[in-house]
Amino acid sequence: MLIRRESPADVSAVRAVTGAAFAARSQTPVPVEVTLLDELRGCEAWLPALSLVAEGPGGEVVGHVVCTRGHIGTAPALGLGPISVHPGHQGRGTGSALMHTALGAADALGEPLVALLGEPAYYRRFGFRTSAEYGIAPPDPAWGEYFQVRTLAAYDPEDPALRGTFAYAEPFSRV
């Protein structure tokens, strides 16, 4: 498996993988995660260096992850998601490879932290902890322990700017 940056030629394959990955949980013909990706691609928070695909053995796109610009007050941070793996490739380490690569790329770019909304039991293995441990509140207080943060090398625990309420890229609030 190869994890690489998404190219313009991958957009339709990423849409298809994301749609397939979330179809079973979707209440709509097009899962909201597909619409969210489309909206994120058109906003200033989109970071091409942090939109990554997993290629299967034949070069086909089998997974995708994206981090977009978020903020804690005025301090930059990253919001991760959606992350998707085609159902036929789930359970083979593709999601883990995408996650490790996204975190490594974010760290290499000097980002202080990555936030996400997800299952604590799953994301703990990647170093995510409840955001409250870092003095960071979720955009929606009801998210509680499901809103998590992974600090990176540039994170300074003494920096008061990195405490407060996290804000995702604008499409997250309207899609």
Automatic annotation (TrEMBL):
Residues annotated as domain N-acetyltransferase: 1-150
Keyword annotations from UniProtKB, A to Z: Acyltransferase, Transferase
PROSITE patterns assigned: GNAT (PS51186)
GO MF assignments: acyltransferase activity, transferring groups other than amino-acyl groups
Annotated Pfam families: Acetyltransf_7
InterPro entries according to UniProt: Acyl_CoA_acyltransferase, Bact_Acetyltransf, GNAT_dom
UniProt-recorded name of the protein: Putative acetyltransferase
Native species: Streptomyces radiopugnans
